[in-house]
Structures are given as C-alpha cells and as structure tokens.
Design goal:
binds zinc ion, 2 domains, about 65% helix, helicase activity, helicase, DUF5814, elongated, mainly alpha, Helicase
Length: about 150
C-alpha cells in the first residue's frame, strides 16, 4: 500500500457531521477527493477547518488533468510534500505534526518511517545502477537525495 493510502482525515467524524455527509476516513479515497474537488458543502465548515481543507485542495488538487482528481497528481504531490519535510530534517513524528497543522490530516509515524525507509532503499538501488552504468553525476545526485532522506 502506498503511503497516501495511509493518510487520514483528522477529526473525521466531526468533519462528516459538519458536512452532513459521510466521507471516508482516508484522505486520498475517491469519495474524499471528489468532495474536496467539487467543494460541495464546504461553506458548512468552521473557518479553521475550511481554511485547511482549501489549502489541501489548492496544494494537491490543482492540476489541469481531465481525470482530476483521479490522475495520480494529488498522491504524487503529497509524497513530494513529505519528502520536502524530510529534507528539512524532520523525523516521522514531526512530519505527522506538521501535516496535521497544515492540512488536518494525519498518519501513523510508523507508516511514515517505513515510507522513508523504502525511499532510501529505492534510492540505493538507483545509486548502484547509476554506478554500474558509469553515470557519475547521476550517482552523486542520487547519493545526495539519499543522504537528505536518511538523516
Ligand atoms: Zn493531474
């Protein structure tokens, strides 16, 4: 399962009741994305909640693909966001805190940790491949990304 399948809406029950509709707990579930994309009922949310929901929509659902929000961009952008937080030196617990503050979503820090670990392993494989192919610049670039991720 991708890490984006393990990102949950915080205060999910409260949010559902404000919206007077049942949204799935998973932030990247189709019905949640649909609700966000259409913006239906968002005026029923309190200000603080609505601001965060709108930030999430603007930051992750703003592409021009025909099949938005099912194009994969929201997931890809969210993963970039996680990697950016990591590159800033944040650990799994801090990453979860920041995503909750920013977007009212959360994950289990163990899941974030495995995501980062598997990222490091993917980069290690890419690094070996670049080395075999003699692509030294590429290898150095990958090594740098790996160090940013692993610290
Ligand atoms: Zn897209």
């Amino acid at each position: 399962m991708a890490i984006t399948d393990k990102i949950y809406v915080k205060n999910h029950r409260q949010l559902s009741s404000q919206l007077e509709t049942n949204i799935p707990k998973g932030a990247f579930k189709g019905a949640t994305l649909d609700m966000l994309f259409q913006g239906a009922g968002l005026e029923k949310l309190d200000d603080a909640t609505r601001d965060r929901v709108l930030d999430f929509t603007e930051d992750f659902l703003d592409c021009d693909c025909d099949n938005n929000p099912y194009c994969g961009c929201p997931e890809r952008k969210f993963i970039e966001y996680l990697l950016e937080l990591r590159a800033q030196g944040l650990g799994p617990d801090a990453i979860v805190d920041v995503m909750s503050d920013d977007y009212m979503v959360y994950a289990y820090s163990g899941d974030v940790l495995s995501f980062l670990d598997s990222g490091v392993r993917t980069l290690e494989a890419a690094e070996s491949l670049a080395q075999v192919e003699g692509a030294d610049d590429k290898r150095d670039e990958i090594r740098q990304s790996k160090q940013d991720l692993a610290r």
